Amino acid sequence: MVLPFIYHYATNGPPEFVRQQARPIIYATLAIAVLVLVKLFASGRSNPAERPLHGKVVILTGGTTGIGAKVADELAARGAQLVLLTRVAPSDPFLSEYIQDLRDKHDNQLIYAEQVDLSSLHSIRKFATRWIDNAPPRRLDMVILCAGTLTPPGGRRMQTEEGVEETWMVNYLANFHLLGILSPALRAQPVDRDVRVIVTTCSSYIRSPSLKEQFDDGSWSPGVAYARSKLALTVFGWAYQKHLDSYKRPDGLPMNSRVIFADPGYCRTAGMRRWLTRGSLVGLAIYLCGYFWPWLLLKSPEKGAQSILYAAMESSLGRGEGGKLVKECLQVDFARSEVKDEEVAKKLWEETDSLIEKLEKAQAKKRAARKAEGEKAAKEREDKERSEEIDSLVSAIKKGKAKEKSKSRKKDKDRDKEKSKGSDKSDRSDRSDKSVKTKSKKKSKKLDS
């Protein structure tokens, strides 16, 4: 059927309608070919690496939505033991159902959730100190930092409960605090383990203002805040690799923990949708009407996860020095020299350390004050309940005594009544006796007369 058609087409030429519409058909074919090529280019490369992860313990932030959810799905499929750090408690019905779905889908029961609010330094410290407070040290093969936030264009500057700008807190400060406390756990791993810290970065760090410049609230904007947080995270990640390398192991062997940066590219995630729609319903309507263009030019979350999976599975990244950047499943160089500037890194580290110390002290005082107030209120409630209990006992005793008195009075009245009845009877008997005697006397007198 195909060969006769080709022979006829070759000998007689294309049909008449094709000749008449040749130009539109050619243009349409070229347009479709261009769109296909653009889509293939925008989708990026797929992860060519593969690595068994059975028994590997992975801490993952942002693993319930977007790119992080796809990373969690792929790691769970390969048998990794996942510890998902989530804002809500594991008892949340949606989270528990999500985890159970992952377990059932991949027949992997080693998937758990820990409640860690990345906008709270105290919440991060509680989890991290519990993790490292173990002897012997708990196994930890990988830390993947996928969580992030942003404020849509035109949005208000948001602050956490501790008074830190939200983007700076979640994108940078939380990761600094978490890795800082987990550092002993990473350094204590046996030398035969391939330990990786995967830091998710973004190309927006390229257009960030320099960290050498003083940043004030007056120059704040959503785009600048996001770019600056990503630049700070990248600088810190490079400095953290130096921090790990400076540790001298008791066995004298080289450090086996490596920091790897992964740039997933621009993806159709909830954060990107929030950015494009400016967080408004009108923007969302426009986004949905023109969804073809985001679909064409942006990666899917699954494609965005490929560079992170490559950073987790590529065997060559587990050898040699750390601090490498992966983009489109390829090792590339950093676009800014400031990332490897030791003076900038040192200044950033010291300022962040002092800021965290200051905030934690202030929050500790507030928690102590709240605890004292709670204890005081609890004591007052206890005293009030005790006094109410005593009052109820006293009132019960009074009521009992009143009842006893009323009963005794009633008994006395009954006795008095009985006595009065008895006295009446005796009086009547006396009177009857007297009347009998008088009658007998009268009769005897009559008989005598």
Structural features:
oxidoreductase activity; 2 domains; alpha/beta; transmembrane helix; transmembrane; Rossmann fold; 8 strands; 449 residues; elongated
Note the topology.
Layout: H1 2-12, H2 16-20, H3 22-43, E1 57-61, H4 66-77, E2 81-86, H5 93-106, E3 111-115, H6 121-132, E4 142-145, H7 166-187, E5 195-200, H8 222-245, E6 257-263, H9 270-277, H10 281-289, H11 292-297, H12 301-304, H13 306-313, E7 324-327, E8 330-332, H14 342-448
Parallel strand pairs: 1-2, 1-4, 2-3, 4-5, 5-6, 6-7
Antiparallel strand pairs: 7-8
Word description of this protein:
- Keywords: Membrane, Oxidoreductase, Transmembrane, Transmembrane helix.
- Pfam families: adh_short.
- GO terms for molecular function: oxidoreductase activity.
- This is Putative oxidoreductase-like protein.
- Residues 370-389, 411-436 have a biased composition (Basic and acidic residues).
- The chain is of the alpha/beta class and 449 residues long.
- The chain folds into two domains: 2-42; 47-264 and 299-363, 3-Layer(aba) Sandwich (Rossmann fold), CATH 3.40.50.720.
- 59% of the residues lie in helices and 9% in strands.
- The protein contains 14 helices and eight strands.
- The chain has helices spanning 2-12, 16-20, 22-43, 66-77, 93-106, 121-132, 166-187, 222-245, 270-277, 281-289, 292-297, 301-304, 306-313, 342-448, and strands at 57-61, 81-86, 111-115, 142-145, 195-200, 257-263, 324-327, 330-332.
- The protein has an eight-stranded mixed sheet with strand order 3-2-1-4-5-6-7-8, with helices on both faces.
- α5 links the parallel β2 (81-86) and β3 (111-115).
- α6 packs parallel to α7, α7 packs parallel to α8 and α9 (270-277) packs across α10.
- The chain is elongated, with a radius of gyration of 42 Å.
- The protein starts with a helix and ends with a helix.
- The model has no long low-confidence stretch (mean pLDDT 86).
